Amino acid sequence: xxxxxxxxxxxxxxxxxxxxxxxxxxxxxxxxxxxxxxxxxxxxxxxxxxxxxxxxxxxxxxxxxxxxxxxxxxxxxxxxxxxxxxxxxxxxxxxxxxxxxxxxxxxxxxxxxxxxxxxxxxxxxxxxxxxxxxxxxxxxxxxxxxxxxxxxxxxxxxxxxxxxxxxxxxxxxxxxxxxxxxxxxxxxxxxxxxxxxxxxxxxxxxxxxxxxxxxxxxxxxxxxxxxxxxxxxxxxxxxxxxxxxxxxxxxxxxxxxxxxxxxxxxxxxxxxxxxxxxxxxxxxxxxxxxxxxx
Length: 294
Ligand code: IPD
What we know:
The chain is of the alpha+beta class. The protein has two domains: 6-149, 2-Layer Sandwich (Fructose-1,6-Bisphosphatase, Chain A, domain 1), CATH 3.30.540.10; 162-285, D-Maltodextrin-Binding Protein, domain 2 (3-Layer(aba) Sandwich), CATH 3.40.190. It has helices at residues 6-25, 46-62, 94-99, 178-191, 210-219, 232-244, 275-283, and strands at 67-70, 85-92, 105-112, 115-123, 128-133, 138-141, 147-150, 166-169, 203-205, 224-228, 248-250, 265-269. The strands form two sheets. The chain has a seven-stranded mixed beta sheet, sandwiched between helices. The site of D-MYO-inositol-1-phosphate has 15 residues, from strand 2. D-MYO-inositol-1-phosphate (IPD) binds next to strand 2. Keywords: Hydrolase, Magnesium, Metal-binding.
């Protein structure tokens, strides 16, 4: 098989993202007829399914030999192969979408040999597009079509410690079990004062779209993002964007500096001097071992 032309894939993904954006903004979000998947906080709408159908058929028509993995058609046991693969979340931030909260994106990733190499994340409500091709840098295209290289500050401030950081975490839709306890205890430790053994972060944010969280870390709007339980389609596109912006993705559990894209546990840190020390400081705050993805 010929080597994928990554720039061509990128340009195609931008077109698809815009087409999907029109479907998303013109929809009347409803869970009627689709509802929830594993529980009442794991939502899916008819729009998620319609967007994924449009995206997958467009991809199969243009790149019939490439594989496809999408949130709404994934079956337990499906695995990511080394073949060139589109990894797609038709609506990342479905809960926000249902509530009319505009932190919503379509996340279009492309991986080769299981490595994310192209990413396009588009928020159709704010008309902001984040995109990257491996080795070519990451960019934000704003509603006026002006294109800015990420991170937004060419030389971001050093990462001096968690007590200077704005940190995104997500509650996810699994609300019981050991991982839920690890998360809740870790959130408390991150926020607690130094006198109480905490990290005293500036604050925590739970914004509801993994893809946009990664882009916000790439841009420098957030310093850190930590999550366990999300999936390859939530992170594949944002991963390339973050790495091309000088950021890093490691395991949410301590010790693994090179997680797989389908690891389901992620810690993302923005560009800045002190990145590795900040990761070690964060890992020391993780209150137990996360089991998801193991
Ligand atoms: C969800 C969002 C959310 C994250 C969940 C994801 P979805 O994706 O990314 O931020 O906490 O783990 O499942 O369901 O809106 O596509």
